[in-house]
Design goal:
The complex is a heterodimer of chains A (330) and B (492).
Chain A (H helix, E strand, L loop, with lengths): L1 E6 L5 H7 L6 H7 L3 E4 L8 H12 L7 E5 L2 E2 L17 H9 L4 E5 L1 H5 L12 E2 L3 E2 L2 E2 L16 E3 L6 H12 L15 H4 L10 H5 L66 E2 L2 E2 L8 H13 L3 H7 L17
Parallel strand pairs in A: 1-2, 1-3, 3-5, 5-9
Antiparallel strand pairs in A: 4-6, 7-8, 10-11
Chain B lengths: L7 E5 L10 E7 L2 E8 L6 H5 L7 H4 L8 H16 L5 H27 L14 H8 L5 H13 L1 H7 L8 E2 L2 E2 L5 H22 L4 H5 L4 H9 L10 H11 L11 E4 L2 E3 L4 E3 L2 E4 L2 E3 L6 E4 L34 E4 L4 E3 L1 H8 L2 H10 L3 H23 L18 E9 L2 E10 L2 E8 L1 H5 L11 H6 L12 H9 L4 H4 L2
Parallel strand pairs in B: 6-13
Antiparallel strand pairs in B: 1-2, 2-3, 4-5, 6-9, 7-8, 9-10, 11-12, 14-15, 15-16
Classes of the chains: A alpha/beta (330), B alpha+beta (492).
Chain lengths: 330, 492
C-alpha cells in the first residue's frame, strides 16, 4: 500500500515518536508489511517541485493513495483561509488535506492534533485549529461528521500526544491486512487495540491508589490522582501495559497522565498538575465508577492505609519496605 | 516582494527533511544568489495560547512546540519558572536534567546526520562521481543501509528517556526544582548499559574509532592524517571518514560560510561552571553573552510591530497575515545589532574546542564545520553522561518546589541541539501575562531586520552558484540542512 504523510499544525513529535519504534528497523518493518512511502516530509528524498507535483497527482486522483496520514491539526484561520499554514509557502495545507482525503482509501489522523485539534486549539485557539473529523469532542472537523474515506471507514484517530510508536505502526499494518474495521474503532475513531485500555491498567502506583495514598509534590512515589492531576483512571490508552521508550510511561516518569488521547485534553478546566476537588473529593471519577461508591470506598480505603504505604507515598525513595512474613520452619 | 532588475526570483519550497515547513526565495543574478529570503510558512500561536494560563501549565504546553527539541523547551520553561521563583535545583535534579537534555540533543544530532543531512549525497546530480555508488547505498533516504543500523541504535538510546523522563517526546519530568523521576541504583546501572551501547554504536559505525581518539585530533592536519589511515571504501571506514571524504571532494568546507556572530548561552550545568561555556565568537574574538542585549525585530515578520525592536521580555505576538513587506512568520532576533548563528558550531567555537577552532580558522565556518561540530559533540557529551551517571547521591533529594510570586518575571536559557533557546516569562495576578520564545532557528533563519540586515542562512546562501531555472543544485540543500533547522521551534 502507498502511504502519503502530511504535516500541518503540530510539532512533528508524532513522527519523532514513531522513529523510536523498537520492534525492528522501522523502514524494514514498513517494507515487510507492504507499505511504501510515497512521501514523508521528514524522511523522503524529494522536496520542492517534485513534492508539489506528487501532491497534485494524488489530489487529482491520478496517483493512488492507500494510506493518507496527517500529523498536526489543520489550521483553518485566519477567516477560513488556511493561510496560517501555506505548504512550502504556496497553497494552504487545509486545501491539500481536503482534496487528498477525498481520494485516499484510508485517512489516518496521527496524534491528537490531527484527530481532535489538540494543543494548537488550546487557549484562544489563535489559528482556528481543528482535527480532521473532530473539533474537540464535537464531530465535524474539516471533513465533516459524515465523511467516509473511499475504503468505507471514517478517519482513524491514532490519538495521543504523541502516540506510541506501536500504535502508529500497528494501525497501518492492520489496515494493510484488512483487519481494522469500523467495529475496531471506538466512538472517537480510535483503534480499540490501544483505546479500550485505561492508563491506570498496569500502573505501578496501584497500591497507593488502592489506599488513596497521594503524592503531594513532584518526585513523590504516591498516587498522582489525588493531588497532582492524574487522569490515568479515565484515560483510554495502554501506556502502562505497553511501555514507552523501553520501560517508561508518564506515571512511571513521576508525572500525571493528562489524558492526551482524549479530545479537548488541552483544556482540562484546571491546571494540568492539580486535581480539582469539591469538599476534598476529586471531581474526575474513575471510568465507570459510580460516585457514591467511589466516595465510600475512598473513605474506607483511606482509613485502612498501611503505615508503610502512607510514608512511602510522600517520599521520593522507599523509606519502608514491605514486611517479610516470617513463617515457622516445617 | 519582486526581484530587482537584472535578477530572476526563484521560489524554492517546500523543503523536506527539515523539522517543519520551509520555503526560500532566491534572487539570482548572473548565475549566483544575489539575495536570499527565508520564509517560515507555519504559524501556530503558542505565545498567544500561553497567555492567561497557570504558571505550571507551561511545562505541559511548551514541550509541544516541538517534537524534536521537546526536552529543550521543557528545560527552558523550567529554568524560566525557577528564575521567577528563585529556585535552585538539588544536585540529583541537575544531573538528571543534564542527562535528559543530553540524550535529546545527541539523538537529534544522530537523526540530523543520518536521516536529514547525508541523504542529499544520494541525489542524482552526483551519480557520475566515483564515490556515488557506495554513498548512495549507505545514505539514500529510507532505503540506505545506514538507517537500518542507526534507527535501532537510536531507539535503544531513547530507552534512557523511558527511565529518566517517562517518555519522549513530551515529558513533564523536567521541573523548575529538579526532576520527577528519582532513580534507584539498579536503574542507574541500566542507564549505564544504555549509554555504553550508544558509545559502542558510535565507535563502531559513526567514528570507527574510540571517542577519545577523535577528541585527540586537534587540527585539520591531524584530522586528515586520521582520515587517511583507512582507505576509502573499506568496510571499517566509518561514517565520519565517509563524510570527510565528501567534504573534501565537494569542498563543503567553504560552502555556505557563516557571516554572523556565533552565539551560545552555555550548556549542561556542572557543580562548578558548565560543560560548554557561554559567550559569543566572531573573527577569532571571544566575548561574553549578555541576554539583556537580545532584541526581536518584527519589520519583515507578519506581526504588529512596536516602533522599535523589543526585548523579548517586553515583546508581543499579534499576527498580521497580510502585513506589507513581511515575508516570514519568523521574527528577527538580534544581539544588539548583530546577526547571530547558533548551534553546535557556535557552542564548540565559544567553548574553545581545539579541532573546531582550528578547522574554522583554516578551512572556514561552512557546511562541513557545522556538521563536524555536531559529531565532535558526541565525543564530548557521551563521556560527560558517563560521568554524570556516576555522580548521583541516592539518599539525597531530586526535586524541590517553590511557587513563584503572583507578579514576577523569569528567563530561561538552554542550549538545544540546534543552539540557544530562550524563554522570557512574566506573571501577573498569578498567571501568565506574557511568554516570549526565541528559538535557535529563529536566530539562524531570521528574516531581515529594520536595517535590512539578512539573517544567518540568508547570508550563508548569498553568492552560491544557482541557475535561474532547472534543478536546484544539491549545494543549496547542503547549506540549508547544515544548520539542522527546526522550523516548528522557529515559529511557535
Amino acid at each position: 500500500m502507498k502511504l502519503l504523510w502530511l504535516q500541518s499544525g503540530g510539532c512533528g513529535g508524532c513522527t519523532l515518536s514513531w522513529l523510536g519504534y523498537a520492534q525492528g528497523p522501522l523502514f524494514d518493518v514498513l517494507a515487510a508489511e507492504g507499505i511504501e512511502l510515497l512521501w514523508h516530509p521528514s524522511l523522503s528524498a524529494d522536496g520542492l517541485t517534485a513534492v508539489l507535483d506528487l501532491l497534485e497527482e494524488c489530489a487529482s486522483g491520478r496517483k493512488a493513495v492507500d494510506l493518507l496520514c496527517v500529523e498536526g491539526a489543520v489550521l483553518r484561520g485566519p477567516n477560513g483561509s488556511g493561510a496560517f499554514h501555506r505548504f512550502g509557502g504556496g497553497q494552504a495545507m487545509l486545501d491539500w488535506v481536503l482534496r487528498i482525503a477525498l481520494q485516499a482509501r484510508h485517512v489516518v489522523a496521527i496524534g491528537s492534533c490531527a484527530a481532535f485539534g489538540g494543543i494548537p486549539a488550546a487557549g484562544i485557539n489563535p489559528t482556528d485549529a481543528a482535527g480532521l473529523q473532530h473539533d474537540g469532542v464535537v464531530g465535524g472537523g474539516i471533513l465533516g461528521p459524515y465523511f467516509r474515506a473511499v475504503g468505507g471507514l471514517p478517519v482513524i484517530n491514532v490519538a495521543g500526544c504523541p502516540p506510541h510508536p506501536d500504535w502508529i505502526t500497528e494501525t497501518l499494518a492492520l489496515l494493510v491486512r484488512g483487519r481494522l474495521t469500523a467495529d475496531d474503532l471506538d466512538e472517537f475513531g480510535r483503534p480499540r487495540f490501544f483505546a479500550d485500555r485505561l492508563v491506570h491498567h498496569g500502573c505501578p502506583r496501584n497500591e497507593y491508589y488502592e489506599f488513596k495514598a497521594g503524592a503531594q509534590k513532584p518526585g513523590d512515589q504516591g498516587c498522582l490522582m489525588e493531588n497532582l492531576g492524574c487522569k490515568g483512571t479515565q484515560a483510554h490508552a495502554d501506556c502502562n501495559l505497553r511501555l514507552w521508550n523501553g520501560e517508561g510511561s508518564c506515571l512511571r516518569g513521576g508525572f500525571p497522565c493528562i489524558r492526551c488521547t482524549d479530545p479537548d485534553f488541552e483544556e482540562p478546566g484546571h491546571p494540568f498538575d492539580m486535581t480539582p476537588k469539591i469538599a476534598g473529593i476529586p471531581l474526575g471519577l474513575p471510568a465507570d465508577m459510580p460516585k457514591a461508591w467511589f466516595v465510600a470506598l475512598a473513605a474506607l480505603s483511606k482509613s485502612a492505609t498501611p503505615q508503610r504505604v502512607r510514608e512511602n507515598a510522600t517520599a521520593d525513595h522507599l523509606v519502608r519496605a514491605p514486611t517479610v512474613k516470617r513463617t515457622m520452619p516445617k | 516582494m519582486t526581484a530587482p532588475a537584472g535578477s530572476v526570483r526563484r521560489i524554492v519550497g517546500p523543503f523536506n527533511r527539515v523539522e517543519g515547513d520551509l520555503e526560500v526565495s532566491l534572487d539570482i543574478t548572473a548565475g549566483r544568489v544575489a539575495a536570499a529570503y527565508v520564509n517560515s510558512p507555519l504559524y501556530r500561536g503558542f505565545e498567544q495560547i500561553l497567555e492567561g494560563k497557570a504558571p505550571g501549565d507551561v511545562l505541559t504546553l511548551v514541550p509541544r512546540i516541538c517534537g524534536i527539541c521537546s526536552v529543550a523547551q521543557s528545560a527552558a520553561a523550567a529554568q524560566a519558572l525557577a528564575d521567577a521563583a528563585g529556585l535552585l535545583r538539588p544536585a540529583n535534579g541537575r544531573l538528571a536534567a543534564n542527562l535528559t537534555l543530553a540524550a535529546e540533543n545527541l539523538a537529534d544530532h544522530l537523526t540530523h546526520f543520518y536521516l536529514f543531512f547525508m541523504p542529499d549525497f544520494a541525489a542524482a546530480e552526483y551519480a557520475s562521481h566515483p564515490w556515488y555508488p557506495n554513498i548512495a547505498e549507505r545514505f539514500a533516504a529510507v532505503r540506505g543501509t545506514a538507517a537500518r543500523e542507526m534507527l535501532p541504535a537510536r531507539s535503544r538510546f531513547m530507552a534512557a528517556m523511558g527511565l529518566l523522563a517517562g517518555k519522549w517526546p513530551h515529558t513533564l519530568a523536567v521541573q523548575p526544582g529538579g526532576t520527577t523521576r528519582p532513580l534507584t541504583g539498579s536503574e542507574l546501572f541500566r542507564l549505564q548499559r544504555i549509554v555504553r551501547d550508544f558509545r559502542l554504536f558510535l565507535e563502531t559505525h559513526l567514528f570507527a574509532a574510540p571517542l577519545e581518539a577523535i577528541l585527540a585530533l586537534d587540527d585539520p592536519a591531524a584530522l586528515a592524517h586520521w582520515q587517511a589511515a583507512v582507505p576509502a571504501g573499506a568496510t571499517a571506514e566509518g561514517d565520519l571518514r565517509r563524510f570527510l571524504r565528501l567534504a573534501d571532494a565537494l569542498d563543503l568546507w567553504s560552502l555556505g560560510p557563516s557571516q554572523a556572530r556565533f552565539l551560545s548561552c552555555g550548556a549542561y550545568d556542572e557543580a562548578a561552571g558548565r560543560l560548554f561555556a557561554a559567550g559569543t565568537w566572531q573573527d577569532g574574538q571571544r566575548d561574553d553573552f549578555d541576554p539583556a542585549q537580545v532584541r526581536e525585530d518584527l519589520t519583515h515578520a507578519r506581526y504588529a510591530a512596536a516602533a522599535q525592536a523589543q526585548e523579548p521580555g517586553q515583546g508581543s505576538t499579534v499576527p498580521l497575515v497580510d502585513k506589507p513587506g513581511a515575508y516570514s512568520w519568523c521574527k528577527a532576533p538580534r544581539l544588539g545589532d548583530a546577526v547571530c548563528e547558533t548551534g553546535a558550531l557556535a557552542r564548540q567555537l565559544v567553548d574553545g574546542q581545539p579541532l573546531i577552532r582550528a578547522v574554522v580558522a583554516q578551512r572556514g565556518a561552512g557546511v562541513a564545520a557545522r556538521v563536524l561540530a555536531r559529531l565532535v559533540e558526541f565525543c564530548r557529551v557521551v563521556p560527560a553522561m558517563e560521568r554524570w551517571l556516576d555522580g548521583f547521591d541516592l539518599g539525597a533529594p531530586w526535586c524541590v518546589t517553590q511557587r513563584p510570586a503572583e507578579a514576577c518575571s523569569g528567563v530561561g536559557l538552554v542550549e538545544a541541539a540546534r543552539g540557544t533557546l530562550g524563554h522570557w516569562l512574566t506573571l501577573r495576578r498569578g498567571s501568565i501575562h506574557r511568554y516570549q520564545i526565541v528559538a535557535p532557528t529563529t536566530w539562524n533563519f531570521s528574516p531581515r531586520d529594520a536595517a535590512g540586515r539578512p539573517g544567518a542562512l540568508e547570508q550563508a546562501l548569498a553568492g552560491l552558484p544557482v541557475p535561474a531555472q532547472g534543478t536546484l543544485p544539491a549545494a543549496v540543500h547542503h547549506v540549508v540542512r547544515s544548520f539542522d533547522p527546526c522550523m516548528v521551534c522557529t515559529v511557535h
